[in-house]
Write a structure and sequence with these properties.
1% helix; mainly beta; five-stranded antiparallel beta sheet; 432 residues; globular; six-stranded antiparallel beta sheet
């Protein structure tokens, strides 16, 4: 049986509308089938506030009618089940229900089945990863969803958890091994193998930087808006509350896309560098700002070398900036170091440079040291090498093991303290 497209139609126009949900076979370019077939479906209508409306649907049904819904914004979710196990789901972006509406956006289903045995990794695997609590596994972002990687077996799972939330999606790790995705289809939270919509009108901005500012809040800095061909940097600094779905714009600005964010350990954060131009004409930024999730931008400074595609880390209150690309587009090996003096970021003793220039790398703190891995370098041998920044020595040395070429990498610390770095479908585990 193939399932796919969910279309919502309005019946009646006097009071609040009744919606008839039609389930149709997917178009040929989006086939989807189950073997054995599902046993039931469940339709969820979720308002920004108030209780959601749930209707059980027979697996063979081709439509279901909802009671009149209050006017206002709703998210519609269809879940396909086999004996209560979730096989697939589809969801709309936020939909404004009005008396005269005649149709909501169509909705496609995607597999969210349990992860199976070993499989070839998706070559796009990387960019974002989140560890699963108490296990040797992590979920890694791919172009088609999330794929499980088990570092004890060195294998990727054969099925994917659907997690696509539209273009311009910002992925953020939350406390307790959860994650948030804020994109064109709204905000979603990944928890215990499910991707749940957040009752929020928030959307992502292409190239925005995000970081957890609390248990259920996300700090978003910069990004780009405007036509796809010529997106312009967006200056806003804002906080999305995942519990209430509200977004608050904070004082100050950071007009940069693809900035890097890190926690300072005092409830505040630092935003560093990025692209202040466009994709066609990139301009590396020298901005460095201290951001408070309540009061906004508190203090600013400047990098010695404007850069994008860099990595940052915070060790004992010191802000470390690694590599990237400079104004001429060339790869950088320079490391910059800042400390806070009366809340103002100032240059500290400058570290030795990395052993080789690289951009697009990751930096993850291990004790008082920082692991530098992945990204783009001048040749394959350098790209496969990794380094450890020794804070006490204010310089780097080669990491062990040498590693592998990891484009677009993501790094997470697993339950046993080891560090998983994955990118381009390859994975390396470092054990401190």
């Amino acid at each position: 049986m193939r399932w796919g497209l969910l279309a919502l139609f309005v019946a009646g126009c006097g009071g609040p509308p009744e919606l008839t949900v039609c389930v149709r076979t997917a178009p040929d370019d989006h086939p989807f089938s189950f073997d054995p077939p599902p046993t039931s479906m469940r339709l969820r209508a979720i308002p920004l506030s108030g209780p959601e409306v749930i209707r059980s649907v027979d697996a063979a049904a081709d439509e279901v009618r909802l009671p009149p819904l209050d006017l206002g914004p709703w998210v519609f979710v269809l879940e396909v089940l086999r004996d209560e196990a979730l096989l697939a789901t589809g969801r709309t972006p936020l939909v404004e229900v009005t008396r005269d509406m005649n149709r909501t956006p169509c909705l496609y289903l995607a597999s969210v089945g349990t992860f199976g045995g070993a499989a070839d990794p998706d070559p796009s695997a990387g960019r974002f990863a989140v560890p699963e609590p108490g296990s040797a596994t992590a979920l890694v972002l791919t172009d088609t969803g999330l794929q499980r990687y088990d570092h004890e077996t060195g294998a990727f799972g054969s099925e994917r958890l659907a997690a696509t939330t539209g273009s311009g999606t910002v992925w953020v790790r939350l406390p307790d091994s959860r994650a948030a995705a804020i994109g064109d289809a709204g905000a979603h939270v990944l928890e215990e193998g499910r991707v749940e919509p957040v009752r929020s009108a928030a959307t992502g901005l292409d190239g925005a930087a995000g970081i957890a500012a609390g248990v259920d809040s996300v700090l978003l800095v910069g990004g780009a808006s405007g036509p796809d061909a010529t997106p312009q940097p967006e200056a806003s600094v804002r906080v999305l509350d995942l519990a209430t779905g509200t977004t608050e714009v904070l004082p100050g600005a950071f007009p940069v896309r693809d900035a890097r964010l890190a926690a300072l350990g005092n409830g505040r954060f630092v935003a560093v560098g990025g692209n202040s131009g466009t994709d066609a004409a990139p301009v590396p930024s020298d901005l460095l700002a201290v951001v408070d999730p309540v009061d906004g931008v508190l203090a600013e400074s400047s990098l010695d070398v404007p850069r994008m595609g860099h990595a940052i880390a915070v060790v004992e209150g010191n802000i470390l900036v690694f590599g990237g690309r400079g104004a001429d587009g060339g790869l950088l090996s320079a490391i910059e170091r800042f400390r806070l003096a009366s809340g103002q970021p100032v240059h500290a003793a400058q570290p030795q440079s990395m052993t080789a220039p690289r951009a697009g790398l990751v930096a993850i703190v291990v004790g008082e040291d920082v692991l530098l891995a992945g990204g783009e370098a001048a040749d394959a041998e350098v790209a496969a090498a990794s380094e450890i920044f020794r804070f006490a020595l204010n310089g780097t040395e080669p990491a062990d093991p040498p590693g592998a070429a990891l484009p677009d990498p993501a790094a997470v610390t697993l339950h046993d303290g080891s560090v998983l770095v994955v990118g381009g479908g390859s994975a390396v585990v470092y054990r401190p």
